[in-house]
Specification:
The protein has helices at residues 6-27, 34-40, 55-72, 80-91, 94-98, 105-113, 118-139, 148-167, 171-189. The protein is mainly alpha-helical.
Length: 190
């Protein structure tokens, strides 16, 4: 039997994490069984335990990966408040609302993360802090700590606005929530 290289194993593990992230955000953590997650990655159930100790282990790793990736996207934005405005307009867009599988883990999974194992909550906490730190650094590049409270408020406002918009059955009202969320966030930024 051929043995896979360490690089191949790590690439496979990352593929599982990425496909599971999409599936979790689309169908929920509880709505995504190991068999489905492995099929999404093009692997058999048996391969799961070569990469993760349990589904809880996978969930924690997915949450960490999703939030790390989201924090890293801030480096691609224009500097300062202009970048924050671009982020907010993209985050609070109908496109983001209508495609949770490709979007933010916070807006898609927050209610479930609150019921997850401690390791997942720790992964989420670390990732959320990194995102808030990125926002604070854009608000006050010379003293990010001074803008931490405002950054935290902006992050929670954006996540809550997106969650509310997703929950509404009236498309017009859902769009109004997003637009008002952008306006509220921009006012809050001043």
């Amino acid at each position: 039997m051929a043995r896979y290289s360490k690089e191949h194993k790590e690439a496979t593990r990352q593929r599982i994490i990425e496909t599971a992230g999409h599936r979790f955000k689309q169908d929920g953590i509880d709505g995504s069984g190991v068999a489905t997650l492995m099929a999404d990655a093009g692997l058999t159930n048996g391969a799961f335990y070569a990469h993760f100790t349990s589904k809880d282990d996978l969930v924690a790793r997915v949450v960490a990966d999703q939030l790390r990736t989201q924090a890293e996207t801030f480096s691609t934005l224009p500097p300062g408040r202009a970048g924050l405005e671009e982020f907010l307009r993209d985050y609070l867009s109908p496109q983001h609302r209508d495609h949770p599988g490709a979007g933010c883990a916070s807006a898609a999974l927050l209610d479930e993360i609150g019921r997850c194992a401690t390791a997942t909550k720790h992964a989420y906490t670390d990732g959320a802090r990194a995102i808030v730190d990125e926002i604070a650094a854009r608000l006050a590049p010379d003293d990010p700590q001074s803008a931490y409270g405002k950054a935290l408020g902006l992050f929670t406002m954006a996540v809550g606005t997106l969650q509310l918009s997703r929950a509404l059955s009236d498309p017009k009202l859902a769009d109004e929530v997003l637009e008002q969320g952008i306006q509220n966030a921009l006012t809050f930024l001043r």
